[in-house]
Specification:
Rossmann fold; 7 strands; globular; binds NADP nicotinamide-adenine-dinucleotide phosphate
Length: 257
């Protein structure tokens, strides 16, 4: 993956992964570091943060982990400034932090759950993209923004309506950012994972939905968090300089079946 002249070499780049201390974000942070990037992880849990910092340091590239709740709007600018002071100007932003509340549908979902889900996924993606894009434009550096979409960006969900609404909107925000930022050589894309084995989906795997998901996925299995790395490195790299506004499914064929 690395090596001089490789289209996918991220040496010298600075990447930020929100929610990079577990699951898909952790895999993406490690994949970006292995591809040569300096990586900053922004997430809440102090113990998990220390684990991922040790893993990133073992890869051998400069790394930083900051405690951050992406719903704490006042803290976002401080975190971005701290990353830039420590690692350098941000070249790659991965808006990955996420939650899901299995409320069972609109009839059960409280306004508080709705707000928290939209704030964590959609509003944080907007606010962090804005902060980082302003820095990229000011530095005339170009850059990459990668947002996490979902199969629920495409399909509706009777179980997790706020999550589905947030993920649908993230695809549209990705397209809008792509149009606006293209003249600044900033490419904005989304990755739409299919069903991936992480803490977020643990309850689903032990429910009757597990068999339905495997039956409905052409690959006939769940994906692993590591299987999101290839798309992440590609979309972060010079190899994707003419790719913008796209949503790339990594789903074992779920979205085409
Ligand atoms: P996960 O294992 O539950 O990890 C979620 C991550 O987000 C953790 O690192 C968590 O760290 C962080 N996080 C949550 N709320 C946060 C907040 N307010 N501020 C900062 N960090 C926060 O979930 P995952 O499955 O890896 O999901 C990662 C992304 O992929 C999410 O956007 C999710 O919607 C999307 N996705 C997942 C799947 C799947 O099948 N797993 C499918 C499609 C899309 P802390 O708790 O320490 O903050």
């Amino acid at each position: 993956m690395t090596g001089n002249g490789s289209l996918f070499d991220l040496s010298g780049r600075v990447a930020v992964v929100t929610g990079g201390n577990r699951g898909i974000g952790r895999a993406m942070a490690q994949g970006l570091a292995r591809a040569g990037a300096s990586v900053a992880v922004l997430a809440r849990n102090a113990e998990q943060n220390q684990l991922v910092l040790a893993e990133l340091k073992a890869i051998g590239k400069p790394a930083l982990v900051l405690p951050l709740d992406v719903t704490d709007r006042a803290a976002l600018a401080t975190a971005v400034a701290e990353v830039e002071r420590t690692l350098g100007g941000i070249d790659i932003l991965v808006n990955n932090a996420g939650i899901v509340a299995l409320t069972g549908g609109v009839l059960n979902e409280t306004a508080d759950i709705w707000d928290k889900t939209i704030e964590t996924h959609l509003n944080a993606t907007f606010l962090l993209s804005q902060l980082v894009a302003k820095s990229m434009v000011k530095r005339k550096s170009g850059g990459k923004i990668i947002n996490l979409a979902s199969m629920y960006s495409i399909f509706g969900s009777g179980l997790v309506p706020s999550y589905s609404a947030a993920k649908g909107a993230i695809v549209q925000l990705t397209k809008s950012l792509a149009i606006e930022l293209a003249p600044h050589n900033i490419q904005v894309n989304a990755i739409a994972p299919g069903w991936i084995e992480t803490d977020m989906t643990a309850a689903v795997r032990s429910s009757p939905m597990n068999d339905e998901i495997i039956a409905r996925t052409p690959a006939k299995r769940w994906g692993k968090a590591d299987e999101i790395i290839g798309a992440t490195v590609f979309l972060s790299s010079r190899g994707a300089d003419f790719v913008t506004g796209a949503t790339l499914p990594v789903d074992g064929g779920y979205s085409v079946y």
